[in-house]
Amino acid sequence: MWKPDRQSKQPLYEQIADHLERRISYGEFPPGSLLPSERKLAEQLGVNRSTVVQSFAELRSMGIIESRTGSGTRVSKYKWGITPKHTPNWSRYAEGGSFLPNQPFMRRIRKALTEHPSLIDFASGELSKDLSPIDEITTLLNEPQSISYLGYDNPQGYTPLRQALVSYLRDYRGIQTTESSILITSGSQQSLYLITQCLLSPGDAVAIEDPSYCYSLPMFQSAGLRLFRLPVDQDGARPEDIRTLYKKHRIKMVFINPNFQNPTGTVLKAEQRIQLLNIASELGLPIVEDDPFSLTAYKETPPSPLKSIDSTGSILHIGSFSKIAASGLRIGWMVAPHTIVERLADARQQMDFGLSVIPQQVAAQFLKSPYVEPHLDRLRMNLLFRRDLLIEALEKELPGLVCYTIPQGGLHMWCKLVPKVHDGKLLEEAIKNGVVFVPGSVYGSDSGFVRFTFARPQVEEISSGVSKFAKALQNLTNNRRE
Amino acid sequence: MWKPDRQSKQPLYEQIADHLERRISYGEFPPGSLLPSERKLAEQLGVNRSTVVQSFAELRSMGIIESRTGSGTRVSKYKWGITPKHTPNWSRYAEGGSFLPNQPFMRRIRKALTEHPSLIDFASGELSKDLSPIDEITTLLNEPQSISYLGYDNPQGYTPLRQALVSYLRDYRGIQTTESSILITSGSQQSLYLITQCLLSPGDAVAIEDPSYCYSLPMFQSAGLRLFRLPVDQDGARPEDIRTLYKKHRIKMVFINPNFQNPTGTVLKAEQRIQLLNIASELGLPIVEDDPFSLTAYKETPPSPLKSIDSTGSILHIGSFSKIAASGLRIGWMVAPHTIVERLADARQQMDFGLSVIPQQVAAQFLKSPYVEPHLDRLRMNLLFRRDLLIEALEKELPGLVCYTIPQGGLHMWCKLVPKVHDGKLLEEAIKNGVVFVPGSVYGSDSGFVRFTFARPQVEEISSGVSKFAKALQNLTNNRRE
Ligand SMILES: Cc1ncc(COP(=O)(O)O)c(C=O)c1O
Ligand SMILES: Cc1ncc(COP(=O)(O)O)c(C=O)c1O
C-alpha cells in the first residue's frame, strides 16, 4: 500500500493530495463515489488526521472533491468532463450478488493486521513462517526445474500430483484410492466451496458442528443453505444428533472436522466414528470429512480418517497442505466417488479453469522428496512447544480467568473466559493493546470463548501476546466495575 | 489415466477386472452406482470391446457387479457388507446446485482430446507449447529463487505482481492505475466469474456480444442472468444496440471483448468505442472489457483498451497471460474502481483464499525480465505465419466452401461453411477423421460456423488438419446426397 515519503521535501499533505488526485483521475474513485473518511485515511497512511484534513482542503479547493456534513467526502461529478456524466453506481453493484461479505470480526481482524503489522497475531489460523518447510521448498525450487507443459491442464488437477497423493494418502492416512478419484483444489476452502455450490441447492438443510470453522464462512449462507447444529463436546459431535436432524429437517449433508477440530481441538471418539458411519449409510447421507490437522498430532499416532473405514462410499474426504506445510501453496484435495469428482471438475472449469501447474509441480516434488517425514517431526515438536508456552502464559497472566481442554494436535487453543465480556469490545481493546485473536462467536452460537492460534506468532511473542491480552481483558472488566 | 499394461503376462481382461475391483473397493464406484458402459470403457482403455465384456463377466461371476439389460452395469449392493447398506445417491447430488454443466460440445471435445491425444487440435483456445515462453520461464525458475512468505496472502493478490502490472499496464496498454485497484485472479475466467457471481443477482439482464466466448460459458446461465445479444459485425458491436437493450430490458452490465474478439477476430471500430463510452456514461452502465488478445496484433500497434479512455470509471478491465504467454500459469487481473476490487477480494476469500504465491512470483519476475518484448515479437510473427498457413490450407482443401474475414490478431479464425451441415454430426465426423474444432453454435445463435484455433496445433499439423476436416465435411455432404 502506498504511504507518503517522510524523507521527501514535499509536505505530507501535498503528497497525499497528489496521490488521491492520481487515483481519482485513474478512475479508482469514480465521480460521485465516496472517499474513505479522514480518520480512516489517516490511520491507513500512518499520519495525523489534521494532515488528511489539509489534503482534503487542497483537493476541495481544486474542485476535485466535495464534502457535505453527514454524508462524507465525494469525488466531484462536475470537474471530470464537460457535461455532467453518470458513473455506474458502483456501491450498489458491490451489494449485488448472492455473496455475503465476510464476517465483520474477520474483516476487522484482517484490517487491523494490514494496518498494524506489528500486532501479535493469535488470529490467523496458520503456521508461522519458521514452521513452514520454506527452506525445503526453496531447495526444491532451486533444483533444476523443467516445465514440460503450461497449457490448460486436466481440470481434476496435475496428474503427477494426484499420483503422488495416492501414495501419500495410503502411507500417511490409510486411504486407498486412485488418481481418478482425486480432485486438486485451492486448499480445503475450494473443496468446501465446490461442494456447497455444486452438490447442494438453496434451501437444502445441512448439519455442521457447533462450534465450527464453517460458521466463520459466510459461504454456507451465501449458498442459501439452512444450517443445523451438531453440538461438539469433549468427544466430538454425537452421531445420534444426526439422526434427529435428519428426521426433523431432512438434512442432505453433514460437515465434520473429526480430528483436532477447529476451533475446539477435539478428536471424535472411536466408537462415535463407527456409529457415525453406520447412521450415514443407514440414511444414505453423505458426510464431508474436513481433515487438515491430523498430521500435527503432537505425540500420538494421528487419528485415522473416517474415509479409511468408509465401506459404503459415504465420505467426501478433504485434505490440504495449509496446516501441515504452507497455506500460501494453496494446495488441497478431495477424495470422492467418481461421479462427484467428475461433476466438480467440470464445474470448476467455469470458475477458474483449474490451478496453476507450477505450485502443483512443487507440491508433487515435495511429496516425493525425503523432506516430508523430518518436516512433520519438526512441526509436531514445535507445535507442542508452543502449545505449552501458551498454557504457561495463560496460567501466569490469567490465573482462574480461562478454562480450556489441552489439545493434542492442531494449531489452536479454545478458551472459555470466566469474566463475562463483550466479544467485540474485547477485540477492540486487544487491538489497542497490540494483540489479535478470534472471538469465539465467529465459530457458532456460544459466546464467551476465544480462539488462540499458537502456531502463528513467533515463539518469543507468545507470552507477551498473552500479557497484552490479559491487559485488555482487565481494562474491560475494570471499566465495567467503575 | 490408468491403462492396462500390454507387456504384462497377466491377460488384459484380468488386469482390467482387477483395476475395476480395486476402484470399487476404494469407494470410487460405491455400491449401486453405474459403471461406464462396455463401449466407453473399451474406448478409454484403448482395448477391444470384447476384452471389457470379458472383464465384466469376471466381476459378475464374483458378485461384484450386476448387469440388467437396458439399465447398464451397476456395482452390486450385497457384496459389500453383511446387511444391505445405503450409499448416498451420488448421481442425484451431482445434479444439485445451481451450476449448470459445461456445454455438451465442449465436454465432447475435451473427452475426445483426453481419449485420443493424437487428434489435431483446432479446438483448444490457447497457444501451443512452442509459442509459450516456457524456456524463459524455466530460466527464471532456475535462477536462485527465494521465498520470503508462504502464508495466506493479501486477497487482492501478491503485491510485487500488482506493482509489476502497474508498469506493464501503463507501458503496454496505456492504462494508468495503482496497485490498490488491481485484483489478481485465476485467469480472465475467474474475473468473469467473480463479476457474474458477486456484482449481479439472479434475474439481472446483461448484454453480451453475439457470437461471443461468453456463450460457451454456462457461467452466465448458472448465475441466473438473462442474456441479451449485441450482434457483432465487421466493426464490432453497435453501441446503439446497447441503448435499445437498456430501454427494453434495463440491462445492468455489458460484456465486451473489443480487440480481436473471440471467436470472430473483430476489432471494435474507433468511433464505436467513443460512442460506447458515451452511452455507458449516459446510462451509468458498467462495461466489462475482456481484453486477452490485444498484444497478439500481428503487424499493427495493438488496439488501445477502452479503459485507457474511460473518464467516468465505467469500465472493469480484464487481462490475462493466457493468450500471450501460457494458460497454465493461471494469472489474470482486473482493473476496477476501489469499491469493486475490495468487494471481489473479500468474496474470493470464501472461494479459494486467493492464488498460490509461487506462480504470482514467477509472473512478476517474467514481467520485470528482459524477455517480455522479444517473446511478444516472436509470438506475433509466429501467429501470423500460422494464420497464413491456415488460410493457404483452407483455400487449397476447401475452395469455395468457406468464407472468412482475415484476422489481424488473436488465435482464432472464424469461418462460415457454405454447405449446410449439422454442427454435431460434423464434429463427430471430424473426430473420426482425426481433427477437432469448435462448432460455431457454441458461441451463440448463428449456426453453420466453425472456429479454428491456429495457435494450438503444431505448424506441421495445420495443413493435414484442414485436409482431415475437408474429408469429414465431404463425407457428410456426400452422404446427404445419397
Ligand atoms: C477446518 C478447516 N477447514 C478448512 C480450512 C481452509 O484452509 P485451506 O483452504 O487453506 O486448506 C481451514 C482453515 O483455517 C480449517 O481450519
Ligand atoms: C475472450 C476470452 N475471455 C476469457 C478467457 C478465459 O481465459 P483465461 O481464464 O485463461 O484468461 C478466454 C479463453 O478462451 C477468452 O477467449
UniProtKB/TrEMBL annotation, chains A, B:
What region holds the HTH gntR-type domain?
A: 10-78
Q: SUPFAM superfamilies annotated for this entry?
A: PLP-dependent transferases, Winged helix' DNA-binding domain
Q: Which SMART domains match?
A: HTH_GNTR
Entry keyword set: Aminotransferase, DNA-binding, Pyridoxal phosphate, Transcription, Transcription regulation, Transferase
Signal peptide range equals none
GO terms for MF? transaminase activity
**Which co-factor is required?**
pyridoxal 5'-phosphate
In terms of domain of life, where is this protein from? Bacteria
Q: Which Pfam families match?
A: Aminotran_1_2, GntR
User: Which family does the record assign?
Assistant: In the C-terminal section; belongs to the class-I pyridoxal-phosphate-dependent aminotransferase family.
What protein name applies here? Answer: PLP-dependent aminotransferase family protein
